[in-house]
Amino acid sequence: MKKSILATCLCMGLFTFGCQSNKEKENTDKDNSAPIENKDSHSKSNALEINPQHVSLNLEVDFDKKQIAGSAKWLLKPNENTDKAVFDTYQLEIDSILYADGNKAEFKIGSHDPILGAALEVELKKDTEELTIYYKTSDDATALLWLTPEQTFGKEAPYLFTQGEPIYTRTWIPSPDGPGYRFTYDATIKVPEGLLALMSAENPQEKSKNGVYEFKMEQKIPAYLMALAVGDIAFKTVDDRTGVYAEPAILDKAYNELDGLGEMVHTTENLYGEYKWDRFDVLFLPSGFPMGGMENPRLTFATPTILAGDKSLLNLIAHELAHSWSGNLVTGASWDDIWLNEGFTVYIERRVTEAEHGADYAAMLWDLAEKKVDAAIETAGENSKDTWLKLDLKNRDPENAFTRIAYDKGAALLLLIEQTVGRENMDNFLVKYFKDHAFESMDTERFLTYLDENLLNDNEEWKEAIRVEDWVYGPAKPSNYPKVKNTRFEQVSTQVDAFKNGTSAADLKTEKWSTYEWLFFFEELPSKLTLEQMEDLDKAYKLTQTGNSEIANAWFLHSIKAEYETAYPQMKEFLYVTGRAKFLSPLYSEMIKTGKSEMAKEIYKIARPNYHPIVQRGIDGILK
Ligand code: BES
Ligand code: ZN
Known about the structure:
It is a single chain. By secondary structure, the protein is an alpha+beta fold. The chain has three domains: about 30-230, Immunoglobulin-like, CATH 2.60.40.1730; about 330-470, Orthogonal Bundle (Neutral Protease, domain 2), CATH 1.10.390.10; about 485-624, Peptidase M1, leukotriene A4 hydrolase/aminopeptidase C-terminal domain (Serine Threonine Protein Phosphatase 5, Tetratricopeptide repeat, Alpha Horseshoe). About 35% of the residues lie in helices and about 20% in strands. The protein is built from 19 helices and 20 strands. The chain has helices spanning about 45-50, 250-255, 260-270, 315-320, 340-355, 360-380, 405-420, 425-435, 445-455, 460-465, 470, 490-500, 515-525, 530-540, 550-560, 570-575, 580-595, 595-605, 615-624; strands at about 50-60, 65-75, 85-90, 95-100, 105-110, 120-125, 130-135, 145, 160, 180-190, 195-200, 210-220, 230, 235-240, 240-245, 280-285, 295, 300, 330, 440. The strands form five sheets. Strands 4-7-2-1-10-12 form a six-stranded mixed β-sheet. Strands 14-15-16-18-17 form a five-stranded mixed β-sheet. It has a four-stranded antiparallel β-sheet with strand order 8-9-13-11, with no helix packed on it. Strand 17 (about 295) and strand 18 (about 300) form a beta hairpin. Helix 12 crosses helix 13 and helix 15 (about 550-560) runs parallel beside helix 17. It is globular. The structure holds ligand BES and zinc ion (ZN). Ligand BES binds near residues 291, 316, 320, 323 and 402. Zinc ion binds near residues 319, 323, 342 and 345.
């Protein structure tokens, strides 16, 4: 649990309006806001009563203090008889709150919950439709990663980026922070001169002279999609509505990898209907970015670890782009419904990948994903409700929602529906779904009704073939889990056998292999190779030196198991600079499992400051 720098009010042991200072005081009272039907269990806000419409941010980014400070002006349309507005906050220091007429509003801050933070309750007058909250962030705000110049590619300027999903926006903006609550925003952001600021909004393409930037996002979005990045960033146009942002040191590399970005947007539009967000730009972050990608609207954030030089890892961009339909346009109403975002998105990602690279290529991805579902089920337990698509995360951290179940079991259900009703019916259904529910939230129950009414209708045969309830409210892999014919891995299996039987690495037939054949190859090899086998493979394919992060990751895992020390210097370098959680936990866990905890701790001591707080928490847990 993080120590709250925000002590809350202990004004006679009760929430007390008029308790101005929220510092160095404690309040143990419970949040007593009225229960609302269908309320998001991870938000304390009364958004359904105050109907937030818009927020205007006026913020200054201070790299010395590692703090964002300023104001958030909320426009609300409160229901009649609503006498308070409740916002989510997490360790925010609230200085004051003003009504439109400049008078101070009374407010109180509820007890701090280590997962959810604290409710900020503001008194509403009869006609209040505007509240301006003056506040500062704390120095360990989870959404914010402050990088020193050394942690960037350019090594000269500091860098800041935010990560809002699932519930971290409340650590830098007091907000109704639930995926079911949407609003528009605009922002004035002041940053040190010489740096560029970007948001999930209409963006500048070059630096301003004075470090002040204006943004607007005119489409309604939920709080988790608010995002900011500040750094020495430059831009390169791909086509009239797409482009790439990155530090100058990697801009050309990023551009070369993504020169087909405009095409990818067209391909996706052809499948699922018009792209609704005007521009689609991609920002490549420094290596400390903890995710692969994050679908911030208009500006996807991406890890530089997908810049393999051969476009082989661009399914990640297809994935984040797909969220422009599933997730950003139609949004899962709560974190329990996350499969409506991630499962749909993986399905669409596969369809885009298929359109670009062919069905045999996409089939490899389906195949690898099924293995991940198997592993997730094993971790959770076959009968665990965590293997249902509809989750129940009440009183739990919504980070728990993001497992391969939501992603790959979710996608597999859509594939099953496609295989059952035929591709044309499926595509028409999805186009209509995104159109009918654009800029709305959707929960699992309403989706199932919509599916029934708009696709399955009364077709009992289809319903029986799909048995959707078994997937959504049932554990593990239903018996009708769809199969995809995958021929390309058969050839890989043949080579694995040959290698096991003594064929030298250089004689294996690997010429046409993509990244995915290699990943399958590493999975199929015996889990512990001999040192001779490792040397043989390394000599033939220069695996220790590979610039492909996915292949490096798989190779380093084998290196740890085989104690192939030749690869250790490169592996350490990889762990020092890469902050991507997906790679880090398997590598550290493998070191622990194979009795190399000393080595793991030594590496982590150097690497830890480069990791995101969310990742640090995870690795701290592994190494404790
Ligand atoms: N929305 C997620 C990022 C995310 C995950 C945010 C978990 C908060 C918690 C994003 O769309 C995503 O799924 N990214 C994947 C890449 C993808 C190709 C599966 C990632 O970051 O690995
Ligand atoms: Zn996703």
